[in-house]
Design the sequence.
């Protein structure tokens, strides 16, 4: 019963991470497209797009925080795990618990970021604060705060699932990352 | 004798004019005046150059208490601090940093708007800083007048991109101060809007040896603020000293900005630059071809329930009283 | 405990945690959070610092170069252009021990003129040249080490994000800084080639690689078809930047598009490989920028501890000679380089030393080159070496550990250090072109 629930939750969280990841991936594509359009508009038609600068800033944040949960999911967050790998051969149980602790600390950290960013999102939503130059191009702050808060919240959930299932490295061969292992 | 600690923050490096004068003028002056009575002594901790916040982050840093006193660069916050845009939306009026600094500062004290905007960010307004005498146009090729700007690509940042709407076919290209040299050198843009000190610092004469003296005018871009909670806990004597020194800092900084501007123009010419004068008629024509961005701001403020129209009129009246009348009356549509 | 003590203890704590296998951004962030909490006895304040740092650290226009050049590199390698150009470039070097390594350095020096970041260089050449070297039985450590070492050229040869950051802090002309980077960059590339020759001769085991039997020379036509697409791409990106059509960010985007067109024309790109490239770009970008964000939290914590101010007081109290100051400076950068990213190092050390350098009447342009080269040694040194991380996360092969990357990069970090000392002794190398 508990196990089914956990599997269900884990499935949902992983699906959400993959969806966010796809959205972030589309942001990369959008970045390439908008910059090329701007270059052509400026160079050929002498009419640069307004707001490219702000959109680029925005997309960088979007890419990072939309992808973060998926980076956590496939265990590609930067780490130096030589020690853990060495330890794993001698004391697999201890290593698994060590990984649990590390994931728990990570979950707390991500949770804290989500916890402090979410009220920021609400505040920006209420005040409709924006950045950019009025009359030239402005973009609201709230989507940025929302993406940071939800990206970190989702990362927190995935870390929590890793603590519970003790599955730090679901598969060793990770490319392509979204195809299920066939064997 | 009581010791009061103060963490001062700015995201710009310590060598920046306004930061350096904060260290060399504001702080010693506060210390000196407090020493007269000897009741309090300040323990300053200065953190500049991104060691705690980036330039854009000072407002939030003071709001959240990462610093007690900070120098907010207001042009980053046109949404949270709209009324700080007064000088930027009224170009072609005064290129005297002292007059603009004083006028903005008086508006901040006579109308509640600016202080309310800072209060909403959990901080107290202390002083206005004007660090440049005027934006000018620096061009790669020789220009005979503003008509030659038509169809060119001109780099700018913030509100001055909107000045270009008064030039037929001119395209504004956004860039940071540090990008301008490269943008001009590579031909990404034909001209750039900069003030003389920045032009000298970044050796703009090497790539854009023609300066069109458009005299858009001085713009306030810095505000010294204090965290509200920190302020509430300060003894009255210290509050009074800080407020008095803030006014002196305002005038001191604007005065230095004017001296540096003069020296920088001389340096620009000495390093091979040419300054092209612009006639009053040309300036008036440019101003009149622009949309009235001053009224746009006033209406934005009015819509927020602030006396935008009155502030605009009062600001221009103060400059007029100081002897500066613009080539266009920005209070009229 | 004084803030300074807490600051120093935090450094030890971070090293311990990173070696224990804690995710590096998490280690940096968590330790900073706790340090401020202890320092100011105010947990809200430490949360506030976190809020500010996370909010604005990633939001930087120039950071867009990271996904864009990464994307371009991935497309280029998926389209097989890397393989082609390597076949041509290594044709003459086959019999030289470490030949492909030398070719990698040369190609990296060319690529450096197209990118502003070492991260892009590292990710591109990990994809392009590591598989080639492994296929020819080179020592994996040497293979990744060459890429790590030569990736540093990306931020020394202009355009360079780090030269721009320095010119902002020290108020020097960006154009001058770029010119100043040319000779030191080429010098370092030559030094790397020399070092590879030396290693091939005296430590052949470290280099590895098998002798390749003579193969037929390629026809002119074949050479052209293997090189022209890449040359075209470099022309678009390089030419775009130097003629002024493109900023570095835009050049990245245009390069990505051109690479994509080439790949489609060569029928080496399916929709799914295209999507994979975008996806991997996103993963790499997120991992790197999240790390940079965490490093920024950490450097802000040090700022709050007043560590930079204390250091300045300490140095100002002593009369010091040129080499004492410079050695101290290099040691400080090497030390900070173990843990901090290049931009943070520049932002912390330059303001500390700048007044002293000015007082000693030394060139600030030369000082900028010293700073950028010195700070970039940190890209290669453990436990936090961004170039090595990029390589590790790009290569995504569990047979090559992060440890292998660091060990492979070590000889190149050493060559950089020697080059740095030469640059310090001979300012003319930095100033000749200005
Ligand atoms: Na470069
Ligand atoms: Na390092």
Sequence:
């Amino acid at each position: 019963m508990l196990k089914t629930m956990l599997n269900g939750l884990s499935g949902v969280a992983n699906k959400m991470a993959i969806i966010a990841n796809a959205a972030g991936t589309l942001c990369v594509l959008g970045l390439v497209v908008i910059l090329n359009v701007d270059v052509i508009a400026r160079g050929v038609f002498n009419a640069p797009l307004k707001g490219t600068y702000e959109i680029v800033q925005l997309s960088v944040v979007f890419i990072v925080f939309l992808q973060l949960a998926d980076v956590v999911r496939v265990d590609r967050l930067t780490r130096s795990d030589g020690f853990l790998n060495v330890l794993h051969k001698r004391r697999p149980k201890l290593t698994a618990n060590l990984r649990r602790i590390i994931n728990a600390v990570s979950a707390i950290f991500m949770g804290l970021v989500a916890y402090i960013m979410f009220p920021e999102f609400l505040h920006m939503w209420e005040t409709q604060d924006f950045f950019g130059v009025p009359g030239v191009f402005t973009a609201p702050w709230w989507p940025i705060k929302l993406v940071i808060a939800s990206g970190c919240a989702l990362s927190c959930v995935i870390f929590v699932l890793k603590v519970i299932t003790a599955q730090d490295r679901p598969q060793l061969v990770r490319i392509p990352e979204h195809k299920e292992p066939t064997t | 004798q009581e010791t009061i600690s103060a963490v001062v923050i700015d995201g710009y490096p310590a060598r920046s004019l306004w930061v350096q004068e904060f260290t060399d003028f504001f702080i010693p002056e506060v210390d000196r005046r407090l020493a007269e009575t000897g009741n309090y002594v300040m323990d300053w901790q200065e953190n500049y150059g991104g060691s705690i916040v980036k330039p854009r982050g000072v407002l939030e840093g003071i709001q959240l208490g990462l610093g007690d006193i900070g120098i907010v660069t207001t042009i980053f916050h046109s949404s949270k601090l709209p009324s700080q845009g007064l000088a930027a939306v009224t170009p072609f009026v005064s290129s005297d940093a002292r007059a603009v600094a004083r006028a903005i500062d008086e508006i901040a004290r006579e109308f509640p708007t600016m202080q309310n905007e800072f209060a909403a960010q959990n901080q107290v307004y202390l002083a206005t800083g004007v660090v440049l005498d005027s934006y000018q146009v620096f061009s790669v090729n020789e220009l005979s007048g503003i008509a030659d700007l038509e169809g060119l690509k001109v780099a700018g940042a913030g509100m001055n991109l909107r000045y270009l709407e008064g030039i037929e076919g001119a395209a504004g290209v956004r860039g940071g101060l540090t990008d301008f040299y490269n943008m001009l050198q590579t031909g990404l843009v034909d001209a750039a809007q900069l003030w003389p000190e920045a032009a000298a610092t970044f050796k703009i004469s090497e790539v854009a040896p023609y300066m069109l003296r458009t005299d858009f005018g001085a713009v306030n871009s810095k505000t010294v603020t204090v965290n509200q909670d920190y302020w509430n806990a300060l003894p009255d004597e210290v509050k009074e000293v800080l407020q008095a020194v803030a006014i002196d800092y305002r005038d001191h900084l604007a005065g230095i900005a004017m001296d540096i501007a003069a020296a920088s123009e001389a340096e620009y010419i000495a390093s091979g630059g040419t300054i092209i004068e612009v006639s009053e008629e040309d300036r008036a024509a440019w101003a009149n071809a622009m949309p009235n961005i001053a009224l746009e701001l006033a209406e934005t403020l009015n819509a927020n329930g602030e006396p935008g129209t009155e502030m605009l009129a009062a600001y221009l009246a103060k400059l007029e009283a100081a002897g500066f009348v613009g080539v266009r009356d920005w209070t009229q549509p | 405990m004084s803030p300074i003590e807490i600051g120093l203890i935090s450094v030890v704590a971070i090293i311990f945690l990173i070696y224990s296998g804690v995710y590096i951004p998490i280690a940096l962030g968590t330790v900073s959070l706790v340090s401020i909490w202890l320092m100011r006895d105010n947990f809200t304040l430490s949360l506030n610092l976190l809020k500010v740092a996370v909010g604005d650290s990633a939001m930087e226009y120039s950071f867009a170069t990271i996904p864009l050049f990464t994307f371009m590199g991935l497309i280029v390698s998926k389209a097989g252009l890397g393989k082609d150009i390597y076949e041509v470039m290594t044709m003459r070097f086959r019999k030289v021990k470490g030949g492909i390594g030398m070719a990698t350095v040369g190609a990296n020096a060319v690529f450096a003129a197209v990118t502003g970041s070492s991260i892009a260089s590292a990710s591109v050449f990990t994809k392009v040249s590591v598989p080639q070297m492994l296929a020819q039985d080179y020592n994996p450590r040497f293979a990744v080490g060459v890429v790590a070492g030569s990736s540093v050229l990306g931020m020394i040869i202009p355009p360079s994000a780090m030269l721009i950051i320095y010119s902002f802090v020290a108020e020097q002309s960006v154009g001058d800084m770029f010119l100043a980077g040319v000779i030191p960059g080429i010098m370092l590339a030559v030094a790397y080639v020399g070092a590879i020759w030396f290693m091939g001769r005296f430590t052949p085991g470290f280099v590895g690689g098998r002798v390749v039997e003579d193969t037929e020379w390629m026809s002119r036509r074949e050479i052209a078809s293997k090189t022209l697409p890449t040359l075209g791409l470099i022309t678009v990106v390089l030419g775009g930047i130097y003629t002024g059509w493109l900023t570095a960010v835009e050049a990245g985007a245009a390069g990505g598009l051109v690479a994509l067109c080439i790949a489609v024309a060569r029928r080496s790109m399916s929709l799914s490989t295209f999507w994979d490239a975008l996806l991997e770009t996103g993963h790499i970008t997120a991992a790197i920028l999240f790390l940079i964000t965490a490093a920024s939290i950490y450097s802000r914590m040090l700022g709050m501890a007043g560590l930079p101010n204390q250091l300045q007081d300490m140095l100002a109290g002593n009369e010091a000679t040129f080499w004492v100051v410079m050695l101290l400076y290099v040691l400080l950068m090497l030390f900070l380089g173990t843990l901090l990213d290049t931009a943070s190092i520049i932002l912390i050390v330059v303001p500390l030393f700048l007044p002293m350098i000015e007082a000693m009447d030394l060139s600030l342009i030369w000082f900028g080159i010293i700073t950028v080269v010195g700070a970039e040694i940190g890209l290669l040194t453990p436990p936090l070496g961004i170039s090595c991380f990029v390589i590790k996360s790009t290569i995504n092969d569990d047979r090559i550990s992060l440890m292998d990357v660091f060990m492979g990069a070590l000889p190149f970090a050493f060559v950089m250090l020697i080059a740095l000392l030469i640059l310090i002794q001979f300012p003319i190398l930095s100033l000749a072109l200005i």
About this structure: The two ends of chain C are 49 Å apart (CA to CA). Chain C touches chain A through 61 residues (CB under 8 Å).
